[in-house]
């Protein structure tokens, strides 16, 4: 009996390692190919880290990088300003509306980006009329786009703490709602807020469909146009963008692991 169990465990271990190796090759091989292709031109990577030279030679790419970074920062800020107080207030005062709020926040996940653009196009006609055609106006569309992912992260953080007890204790000591939110709730859901922000940045940096169809410029649109004139630079920028998203998700997993470790130790 012990021999049968040992053989079964060995087969399962071999199967797991085989699957991991195949998946590793499947995901790593494209990265290796991108590195090999982007290094065929020896000036590609030095130019990529030389911002003045990059801006002079590829102004559209520099504009796309700047726009995407600003869009990511503003989207994360607007998302947190709108979502965190709403989620906390629903838990404290309007618990019956929690399912409705969750449904509304998860709704963009079920709508394809192309359909979302069709609905946003008339809205953005007015946005352009009042605010101009700046690419930063995409922040409003991106805030809607990231709601499902950000809501899940923040809701998980709020579910891990007793928000009602903390808020009532702070209020009984004379704290206002602003103090409760800033000094009591936010420190306890810091990991969840950072997770939502990281997911927002990763999603905004990789978004192409909405920006392209609304005739706005961001990093992915600039990469698409750049690929028609300089394939090596286009691949190098794409690889850098992918690595940045990977680093953000790695930081997210490390923060989640640290949070679980601190809970277990306490």
Q: What's the domain count?
A: 2
Structural category: mainly alpha
The CATH H-level homologous superfamily of the largest domain: MetI-like
In N-to-C order, the SSE pattern is HHHHHHHHHHHHH
Share of β-strand residues = under 5%
Outline: globular
CATH architecture of the largest domain: Orthogonal Bundle
Largest sheet: none
- From the alpha carbons, calculate the radius of gyration and give it in angstroms: 23 Å
What CATH calls the topology of the largest domain is MetI-like fold
Query: How many beta-strand segments?
Result: 0
- Low-pLDDT sequence parts: none
Query: What is the CATH class name of the largest domain?
Result: Mainly Alpha
Q: Enumerate how many helices there are, as a single number.
A: 13
Proportion of helical residues: over 70%
Average pLDDT rating: 85
**Whole-Å distance between the termini?**
41 Å
Summarize the structure.
It is built from 13 helices and no strands. It has 266 residues and is an all-alpha fold.
Characterization of this structure:
The chain has helices spanning 2-38, 44-48, 51-57, 59-92, 98-110, 113-131, 138-159, 163-172, 177-188, 190-205, 209-213, 219-226, 231-265. With 266 residues, it is mostly helical. It has two domains: 1-38; 44-265, MetI-like fold. Helix 8 (163-172) crosses helix 9 (177-188). The protein is globular, with a radius of gyration of 23 Å. The mean pLDDT is 85.
């Amino acid at each position: 009996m012990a021999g049968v169990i040992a053989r079964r465990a060995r087969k399962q271990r071999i199967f797991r390692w085989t699957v991991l190796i195949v998946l590793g090759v499947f995901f790593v091989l494209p990265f290796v190919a991108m590195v090999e292709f982007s290094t065929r031109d020896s000036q590609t990577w030095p130019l990529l880290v030389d911002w003045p030279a990059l801006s002079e030679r590829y102004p559209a790419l520099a504009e796309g990088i700047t726009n995407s970074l600003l869009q990511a920062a503003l989207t994360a800020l607007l998302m947190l300003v709108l979502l965190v107080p709403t989620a906390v207030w629903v838990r404290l005062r309007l618990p019956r509306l929690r399912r409705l709020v969750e449904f509304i926040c998860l709704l963009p996940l079920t709508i394809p980006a192309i359909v979302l653009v069709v609905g946003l196009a008339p809205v953005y006609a007015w946005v352009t009329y009042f605010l101009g055609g700046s690419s930063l106006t995409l922040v409003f569309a991106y805030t809607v786009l990231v709601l499902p992912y950000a809501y899940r992260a923040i809701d998980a953080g709020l579910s891990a703490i007793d928000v009602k007890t903390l808020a009532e204790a702070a209020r009984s000591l004379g704290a206002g709602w602003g103090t409760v939110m800033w000094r009591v709730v936010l420190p306890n859901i810091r990991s969840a807020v950072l997770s939502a922000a990281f997911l927002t940045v990763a999603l905004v940096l990789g978004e192409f469909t909405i920006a392209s169809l609304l005739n706005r410029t961001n990093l992915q649109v600039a990469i698409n146009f750049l690929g028609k004139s300089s394939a090596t630079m286009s691949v190098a920028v794409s690889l850098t963008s992918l690595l940045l998203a990977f680093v953000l998700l790695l930081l997210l997993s490390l923060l989640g692991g640290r949070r679980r470790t601190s809970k277990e130790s306490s």
